[in-house]
Amino acid sequence: METSLIACRRLALLFISLWILVAPLLAQSDCETLLGEAEYAYEQGAMKEALIGLQYLETCDFDNKLLVERQSLHLRIFEAVDEQIEAINAAKELLETQQRIAKEQAEAEALAKEKMTAALAKATAENEHKQKIIDAFHFHRGNLALASRKQGGTDKYGFINKEGDTVIELKYDHIQHFDSNGFAIAHLVKDGKERTYLLDEMGTEYPVVQTIEAITPTTKAIDLRGVLLKKFPTALLEHPQLEIVLLDGTKDRPNDIKSLPKGINTLRKLKTLSLENCQLNELPTEIGKLKKMEVLNLKSNSLSSIPSEIKQLKQLKNLNLALNSLSIIPTELQQLKKLEHLNLQGNSLKNLLPQIGQHDAVVSSDSHFSEVEKQNLRSILPQCEILF
Hints:
By secondary structure, the chain is of the alpha/beta class.
């Protein structure tokens, strides 16, 4: 539009020059009419028509009044044309500025996207690398892994979580992985003397002895695992302060305990009792009086039934009944609301708890529970991990 207006001005000046030379003078009345038409075109913003009108008015012989009006109109038209040209230039400059800003923004967004993509790729690679490291660790129940670091030229051991945070301080001279009972054996040399502890998953230290003769009034844990026992060591009943008693035999050298004494109820502070590979064939009803019991490991025995008094162990969190001779799930288990881990593997289980579900107990054709039956059992112990 700017080019068009400039061309109009140039054309008007050329036309005026030629018109003066060759055109006859218009009549006075015609000039007044042309002046009015040019004025009207100007007022309507039709500058092209107003300029053409001015070209014709150049041949008029105006009196002083009409001459002043023509000159005034001439100035106003050209001022309006100049204003339009300036407006066009300003709009053009604004458009160029907007285009430049849009281009800069697009370039900035592309650069930001490129950086974000690179950062995401780096983070993904780091996560994959971290996962490979995590996969190389053995995490007890998916939570804690054995770790070590140099301290004063000596390796010190402890446990970390999957985020790499230290959960159990790396200060021990030797340490073992957590066992199925939730304990790790740790050795710490201090002031030239070695101390042995059982560590739970919270890092609580239990000074542990490995012979009955070493028990003192402050002893809370005894570990007789691997000691070939012909019967339950009744001397333990003289130490009611005990909280952890580990009496496991081994697969090749099982203990011959067979049964527990009725006096087991004297160990009222007992929290963990492990009797794996002890050839147990029965449990006394007094087991139900161990109210603080949290872990009861009865794996690899010959138990065909569990006393109903087990329902009194309201604090029980971990119950291992694997590799026994159970044919039914003890109905009392559904009352153990704090139970977190239940192992029923390796039994000859044939029917579902009769109280569970809206149908009669079902016997699976392969003497194992169907998925429906397993789900029904899980529904009454929703917080419990159950192994069939």
